[in-house]
Amino acid sequence: MPPIDQNAGTRKYSLMKTRRVLQTISVLALLCVAIAPAIYMSNRISLDAMKWWLLGATIVWFLVTPFWMQQKREE
Predict the structure, then answer these.
(1) Which pLDDT tens digit goes with each residue over 24-37?
(2) Closest CA to 67 of 6, 12, 24
(3) Could you tell me the pLDDT band of residue 4, with boundaries at 50, 70 and 90?
(4) What is the DSSP letter of 2?
């Protein structure tokens, strides 16, 4: 008989919470990619500032997204 894991429920909750936080960061990064050009078109930021927003958001997205996408979804 295999040993009973007393922390299995806590670990599952922690993974689900971590996944949700990573997904939120990923969505926010995508929103920055979508919003930066709109702000630029309204002449509120310069072209260079928009490029930095796009670069930063892209880097954040590529750093964060693989971590939540590789986790198996637990229901």
Answers:
(1) 999 999 999 999 99
(2) 24
(3) low
(4) P
